[in-house]
Amino acid sequence: MFALELECAYYEKAMRSDPKFQNLESISDLCRMLVQTRNSEFFPMLYRLICLVLTIPVSTATTERAFSAMNIIKSKLRNKMEDEFLGDCMVLHIEKEYAESIDNELVIKDFEACGTRRVRFS
C-alpha cells in the first residue's frame, strides 16, 4: 500500500503537467493514454489497479447471471440435485441460444450409435 501511495503521488505530479492527460473523460481513456505514452511502464501498480477496476463490471455481471440461473434451476422442489447435473443444467440455461440450435433428433441418433441400451429412444 505504501508503494502504491508513493506511485500515486509521483503520478499526480507528472500528469498535472502533461497536456495529454488534461481532457480525459473516463477511466478507460486514462488507461489507453497510459499505454500510448508508455507511462504504464513507469506506474505499473497504478496501471494494474486501473485495469482491475475496468474489469469489475464484467466479472460482476457474469457472476450475477450464474446465480440467477442457479436460483431458477435449483428450486425448493429440486433441492437434492447433484452438483454435476446442476452445472450442466446451468450451462444449458445460460447458453440458451446455442442450446436451441442443437437438433435433438441428431443427438438421439448419436447416443443410440454409442452402443446398446436397455430402452430404445425411437
Question: In a few lines, what is going on in this structure?
Answer:
68% of the residues lie in helices and 0% in strands.
Binned, the helix content reads: 55-70%
Distance between the termini: 66 Å
Kindly estimate the percentage of residues that lie in beta strands according to DSSP: under 5%
Which structural class do you get from the secondary structure elements?
mainly alpha
The tally of strands reads: 0
Largest sheet report: none
- Envelope shape: elongated
Note poorly predicted spans.
none
Number of helices: 6
Rg for CA atoms = 26 Å
- Average pLDDT: 82
The run of helices and strands is HHHHHH
Mind explaining what this structure looks like?
The chain is built from 6 helices and no strands. The protein has 122 residues and is mainly alpha-helical. Helix 3 (44-73) crosses helix 4. Helix content is 68%, strand content 0%. The chain has helices at 2-17, 27-36, 44-73, 83-94, 96-100, 104-113.
Write the layout of secondary structure elements.
Blueprint: H1 2-17, H2 27-36, H3 44-73, H4 83-94, H5 96-100, H6 104-113
Helix pairs in contact: 2-3, 3-4
Task: Based on the model shown, name its key terms.
122 residues, mainly alpha, 6 helices, elongated
